[in-house]
Amino acid sequence: MLPWIIGLLVFQCYPFILSFVYSFTDFSILTPMKYLGLDNYIYMFTKDPLFYQSLKVTLIFVFISVPCKLVFALLIALLLNMKLRSINLFRTVYYLPSILGSSVAISILWGFLFNSTGLVNAMLAKLHIPTVNFLGSPDLALYTVSLLSVWQFGSSMVLFLAGLKQIPNELYEAARVDGASRIRTFFRITVPLLTPIVLFNVIMQMIHAFQEFTSAFVITHGGPLDSTYLYGLMLYENAFKFTKMGYASAQSWVLFVIILLFTLVIFKTSARWTFYEDGGDAK
Fold this sequence. Notes:
The chain is an all-alpha fold. The protein has one domain: MetI-like (MetI-like fold, Orthogonal Bundle). Helices cover 71% and strands 1% of the residues. A two-stranded antiparallel sheet has the order 1-2. It starts with a helix and ends in a 13-residue tail after the last helix.
């Protein structure tokens, strides 16, 4: 285990602690570090308008992409749980977006699909439907970028599928004997027994959504009018475009606290809606 422990200490713990130190300094890599105290945090909360804009955009992105992705992943998992010929092939095909979706190449392809002269608008024109400025409209750009995140449902789908496999078939047989409909069976048996996986997926996808960067950077560069200026993009620009490493470190720690608070809230409220077969809870 020693190589893994060394990697953890050198490449994760050390930068994690060092970033906290940098957050109180004026540090730009090429110049000596200057201690500023809380100035970076004060400037962030009182004078930086892009901080609140990026935070607003990121929260909207999280509340759009995470629920839509999980609902879509669950629906696909239900379909792939059916006993069909070549079902393993379909499971593999549906998992591919989770492998490719976050890559730069797929983000570029997404931009080609939804730009003003892209494939989607070309199809709309063929159907004599007015074209839509998906990426050029401040009202639609964030939804278009969020759609790429929803398309990456593969990892959540696999977890839901594994959870569906663990539900005893006797419960469904008893429900059929009692005359329960499929919808009632889904909400009374399937959903309650999947809530532990729902909890895990919500937390993991929420953390990932708060850190999203590639899609906004490649497809829209934060535009138009900063409507897709995600927090991760702001961090990147301050750190590597403006070489404000100290300020970017302060912003990263604010993001860490925000993610931590959201995670704690989800854990604290999960006892009300998460069901465990052994009678335990999520504490």
